[in-house]
Amino acid sequence: MNAAAEAGPGWWGRKxxxxxxxxxxxxxxxxxxxxxxxxxxxxxxxRELDAGRRAxxxxxxxxxxxxxxELTRERWPDxxxxxxxxxxxxxLLEAMEYARDHDVIYLLGNHEHAHVGGPVVSxxxxxxxxxxxxxxxxxxxxxxxxxxxxxxxAIAPCGxxxxxxxxxxxxxxLHAFDALTYDGYQDxxxxxxxxxxxxxxxxxxxxxxxxxxxxxLAVAHGEPRGFVTYGHDIVREGYECVDARxxxxxxxxxxxxxxxxxLRLELxxxxxxxxxxxxxxxxxxxxxGATA
Length: 292
Known about the structure:
Purple Acid Phosphatase, chain A, domain 2; six-stranded mixed sheet; five-stranded mixed sheet
């Protein structure tokens, strides 16, 4: 089956995905092969649907590339959070299947970019993309095709802009975002990427100024209102309201279960800044029963 058909309506092959002005959005970041956390998010998504609400699941990049098999529970370092095995191949295939008939948006992260024109990413392996592609076997070609069509941004009239890295750069218009290409970065060093145009900054930056965020928000909404939410960096407490315009969200990788946090937005509301985000309402634990 063609990857565009598997990806569901609208966003596959575009750089900007548009959320509606109704329903709810569940936003999460940085799973990096944690299949249990992915399935927990699907359960939350289905719960919203069962309650009669239209619900979108927005995952802000780095779905894949987890720890190697030799990092067993006994050898697991605390800085990686709660133990999990890397199940990136299964996660990616399940994500593709779920996108066929559910309202989901998967954004490009720097780890996905390594499969579709980005620099080699070395985290647990010398070449993360090669390891995952080898593990995909006969599903490799369609999985890589799917990743090539992931958008860079998700925007909603409620005021949110979602991306993978910090909003350190922007294009001048949404149309200009759609003109960006993912290919051609294979020979760029990862540490150089934040200075290689908008794409590199939005995939690799860990920090941005308020002015940076407001520039992106102005392109998305026509005025510098709302806030940008992103992952890429690890916030051990689950989230950080960096300023009025930026929320750094950590849902999975590098966190212990009790701190893993997702964002729930009511799309018919207006969120003027991060001050509108409340723990227990918009900022919610992935595992409410988990303890420190």
